[in-house]
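Reopening this ticket.

The earlier resolution said the output was attached, but the attachment link was broken on my side. Pasting everything inline this time so it's all in one place.
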Amino acid sequence: MSEKEPKKPAAPAKKDAPAAAAPKADAPAEQGQMQQVTVDDSNVSAGYANFCRVSSSPEELILDLGLNPQPYATGNVTVNVNQRIILNHFTAKRLLSALSMALQRHEQAFGVLETDVRKRVKTTG
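Inline output:
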C-alpha cells in the first residue's frame, strides 16, 4: 500500500460466529435457507416495566416502557418512561407473534392472565 492510499480500518472480530455462513443477500427466500443469528448479551442492561404505551407513524411503531409506581391508584398518575423501543412494522409483527406464542405457553402451564388490575386486586370488606 502506498502512502497516499488511506488505510482501511480492520474488520471487527466476529464473536461466536456461526459455523455455517449466512445465505447471500441475493439468495431467494424460497430455497428455505434460514439466517443463523448469534446473540451476544454480554453488555445487556436489564430493566423492568409495568407500563407500556404503543404509538406509531406510517414508518415505525414506538413502544414506551416505564414503571408505574402506583399501579392500583385511581385518578391521574405520572409514569416516567425510561425505555423507548422503535421498531419497523415488520419487526413489530414478528414480535407480536413471538410474544403471543410465549403467552399462550405460559397460560397453558399456569392459567389465564387477567390484564385488568382491578379484577386482580382483592378488597377486604
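Reporter confirms the inline version is readable. Residues 1-23 have pLDDT under 50 and may be disordered. Strands lie at 51-56, 60-67, 80-88.
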